[in-house]
Amino acid sequence: MEITTLMLEQASDIFRLGLLAGLIYTTQRTRLQTGVVLPLVAGVIFVAIIIPATMPKAGVDMWLAASTGAFVNAVIVGLMWLGWQAYDRSKRSS
To answer: What domain range includes position 22?
Structure first.
């Protein structure tokens, strides 16, 4: 499987998106106690490793899936975090 195909499949995985949305929600609610960067990085890496470890794809090395998953997760989390911050600021300014 090509890396681009693998990354597109990972980016559209509803299970991955749900886990990362939960990560954003939890991080936002606990940011005063735990901070932001460390929980997000730990969550991105955790999701990147746990999905290929529990649901492997035939013909794809686990470490290739985990490393591309970490990149895809970082992009998704970045976009979700920016969206959350924009929503939060618009809610506070109204």
So the answer is: 3-93
Pinpoint the alpha helices (H) of 1-94. 3-11, 14-29, 31-34, 37-54, 62-93
Which residue type is seen at 36? V
Q: In angstroms, what is the C-alpha Rg of the chain?
A: 15
Model pLDDT for residues 30-81, shown as the tens digit of each residue: 999 999 999 999 999 999 999 999 999 999 999 999 999 999 999 999 999 9
The neighbour count for residue 16, using CB atoms within 10 Å, is 20
Number of domains in the chain: 1
Q: What is the pLDDT of residue 41?
A: 97
Kindly give, in sequence order, each residue whose CB lies less than 8 Å from that of residue 80, ignoring residues fewer than 6 positions away: 20, 21, 24
